[in-house]
Amino acid sequence: MDITDTGRTPGPSFVPDACTLPTAEQPLRVTEFADMFATAVHRIVRTSATELHLILDGYPATEATARELAARETDCCSFFTFTFHPARVGHAVRALEVTVTVPAAHVAVLDGLQHLAETVVKGSGPA
Fold it and tell me: Measured between alpha carbons, how far is residue 119 from residues 12, 38, 45, 57 in Å?
């Protein structure tokens, strides 16, 4: 699930052997995450080697997409844990906090997910 310098082209270099998603489908899944990150991420916070927080916009469609992607991802990569909590961006803007955790043996996968989010978010800002 790593991306090239174009910022949007996924490749499977950090997908672990434990992933049961067929190889041909892995780039499609990465693209789904990249699309969500590009349109919904407000903030990315890494609190430890095994924990990543993504603050997403609070739209119901974003929450539905995030929950559906998380469910499909845990089906093929059962080491992921995704938790969802209401959050705020500023004083009044409703948001959704997605906490992603992995066991220490899969930190490289979380690193790749963080890199994808940061690269896509950075590339989606104003020119």
Answer: 16, 9, 14, 18
Helices 26-40 and 60-76: angle between axes, nearest 10 degrees: 150
Question: DSSP character for 107?
Answer: H
Output the pTM of the full model: 0.83
DSSP state of 4: -
Alpha carbon distances (Å) from 103 to 36, 43, 58, 75, 81: 24, 23, 28, 16, 9
DSSP 56-78: EE--HHHHHHHHHHHHHHHHH-T
Tens of pLDDT, residue by residue over 4-18, are 333 444 444 566 677
* DSSP for 5-40, written as a single string: TTSS-EE-TT--TT--S-GGGHHHHHHHHHHHHHHH
Give the residue among 92, 110, 125 at the shortest CA–CA distance from 45. Answer: 110
